[in-house]
Specification:
Layout: H1 4-19, H2 24-41, H3 50-62, H4 68-85, H5 110-118, H6 123-135, H7 139-143, E1 150-151, E2 156-162, E3 166-171, H8 174-186, E4 197-198, E5 204-208, H9 211-224, H10 233-246, H11 251-258, H12 263-267, H13 274-277, H14 295-299
Antiparallel strand pairs: 1-2, 2-3, 4-5
Helix pairs in contact: 2-4, 3-4, 5-6, 5-9, 6-8, 6-10
């Protein structure tokens, strides 16, 4: 059972997170990181110190088999608790952030995206997947879209308070607008606020659908389409950016549409674009050596 001191510490931690106006997702991740850290030692987190953190970091790698990105996320949450809530010093050299591997995301071809869309199991899920691919919005941004965010006069969709607490506009494709209108006409009763309202045994038209439901919808569609690649909602965001780049859009425009703070983040799509990969010829093609003879022909009798 938690003592009064531990409850007070947890409340102060939550207050510190909220005071900085962090996103609900970030708050949830940071709280869980400290909770799991304390549970591992069966001790209030404010009674633990640098040596415990170092041991816990090794545990995350060796026992829980987490990747570098997940471990770094856990350490960030714990560091916030010690530095911002408890006001304790944090020596970076004692708990270095793990080096994160640089991996390119998997991209679907346009034909594979079509297969995915055609294999959705409802109008709702079709509309969700179409919107993800047509706009490049994140899964959490998708479920927060409201009816008023669809601006058919200017042909844009307003994304409010996306990652980093930033607003931005993305394009509204005429084809997507037609699909969304068909989806709207199929709904009964009509949603009052959110474009994609909560469904399930107890539907709530005033609440958005859960982000996990979007993940499940994409996974089921990918399974039906028999796609061999790993497909999740963020895959469609990568496809949106890569296919735009292949169609001739410039990086700066794609950066603004995706809501990236740094152009370096957007530039990774250069490594995925077939148009850019094929723009330069391999130096091997410039060599003039003769084709190697077939060894079997050399051994055959004249």
């Amino acid at each position: 059972m938690k003592g009064l001191c531990q409850i007070k510490s947890e409340l102060e931690h939550l207050e510190e997170l909220q005071r900085r106006n962090l996103s609900p997702i970030t708050i949830r991740i940071y709280l869980r990181a400290v909770e799991e850290f304390a549970r591992y030692y069966d001790s209030p987190p404010d009674r633990l110190g640098p040596e415990h953190i170092r041991q816990y970091q090794a545990h995350l790698f060796t026992d829980r088999k987490l990747d570098a990105i997940s471990v770094a996320q856990q350490l960030t949450g714990i560091r916030f608790f010690f530095c911002k809530t408890l006001k304790r010093p944090w020596i970076v050299e004692d708990t270095p952030s793990p080096k994160k591997p640089i991996r390119l995301p998997e991209i679907l071809s346009r034909e594979e995206v079509e297969q995915l869309i055609q294999c959705t199991d409802s109008r709702l899920h079709r509309a969700c997947i179409l919107t993800l691919y047509a706009t490049g919005v994140r899964r959490e941004e998708l479920v927060r879209l409201k009816m008023a965010d669809i601006d058919s006069a200017r042909m844009v969709i307003h994304v409010h308070q996306g990652k980093g607490r930033k607003d931005r506009d993305v394009m509204l494709s005429p084809r997507l607008l037609t699909e969304l209108r068909d989806y709207w006409r199929s709904l009964n009763p009509k949603p009052k606020t959110h474009l994609f309202p909560s469904k399930g045994p107890q539907p709530n038209l005033d609440a958005p659908m859960e982000a996990k439901s979007v993940w499940d919808a994409v996974h089921r569609a990918a399974t039906r389409a028999k796609l061999e690649k790993r497909v999740h909602p963020h895959t469609l965001r990568h496809c949106f950016a890569t296919h735009l780049l292949e169609s001739g859009a410039d990086l700066r425009t794609i950066q603004l549409l995706l809501g990236h703070a740094d152009l370096k983040t957007t530039s990774r799509y250069l490594h995925l674009s077939e148009r850019h990969l094929k723009a330069a010829a391999s130096p091997l093609d410039s060599l003039s050596f003769a084709v190697a003879p077939n060894r079997e022909d050399e051994r055959s009798p004249k």
